[in-house]
Amino acid sequence: MDNFEDFFTEAFETATLKGNLVTLKGIRENAPGAASAENIFATIENSRDFLAEHLPWIPETDIFDLKKRIRSWVLNERFGQGGCWLIFRNSPTDPEGDFAGSIMMDVNLRNRSATLSYWLAKQFTGQGLMTESVKLITKFAFERLKLNRLELLVSVHNGKSAAVATRCGFMEEGINRDYELINGKFVDHRRFSLLARDVY
Ligand SMILES: CC(C)(COP(=O)(O)OP(=O)(O)OC[C@H]1O[C@@H](n2cnc3c(N)ncnc32)[C@H](O)[C@@H]1OP(=O)(O)O)[C@@H](O)C(=O)NCCC(=O)NCCS
What angle do CA 62, 37, 18 make, to 5 degrees? Predict the structure, then answer.
C-alpha cells in the first residue's frame, strides 16, 4: 500500500462494533445518558479499588480529568492516532445495553501497529465481555484498518488480563522491565502480540 497514512486516516473511526455479548461504541464528548462522562465516572468510582490495582491513572482521575481524557481520545481519533470505545453489554430489554467498561487503541502509524488497553467495572467481569471486545477490535484492526501488529502489555501480577490475551490468540514475547509505575512501584509487564499473519 503506497500511501498507507492517507488510507488509514480516512479509514480510522471508532466505528460501532457489534458482537453477541457486547457492542463497542466510539467515545464522544458531551454524550448523553449511559455514554456520558458523568456515567463513566460513576462507574469508575464504584470500582475504584478494583481498577486502581492495575491502572495507574485511576487514583488521579476526577470528573475534570476524565473529560480531558475523553477530549484527547476524540482528538486522537480525528488524527488517526488512536481511539477509545465504550463497551456496552447487550441487553434483551434495553437497546442501549449496560455500560461495562472501555477498550483503547494507541496507533503507531509508521509501523502499522497498535497497543491495546482495557478495563471493566468489577460487576461485569467473569462473563467473557473483554474477550469478545478484544476479538472485535482485533478483527477491525486487521481487516478494516489494515494494521499488521497488535500489542498488549500486562502487569506480571495481572493473571486475568494475561488470560484475556491468551484466549484471544496473542503470543507472549517477553518482559518489559519496570514498564509502569503503579501505586508507587515500578512493575514488570508481560508483552503479548498478535500479527495479521498469525490470523490470516
Ligand atoms: C482485565 C479484565 C478486563 C479481565 O476481566 P475478565 O472478566 O477476567 O475477562 P473477560 O471479560 O474476558 O471474562 C473472562 C471470564 O469470564 C468467563 N466467561 C464466561 N463466559 C465466557 C465467554 N463466553 N467467553 C469467554 N469467557 C467467558 C471466563 O471463564 C473467565 O472467567 P475466569 O477468569 O473465572 O475463568 C478485568 O479484570 C479488569 O478490568 N481489571 C482491572 C483493569 C485491568 O487490569 N486492565 C488491564 C490492564 S492490562
Answer: 130
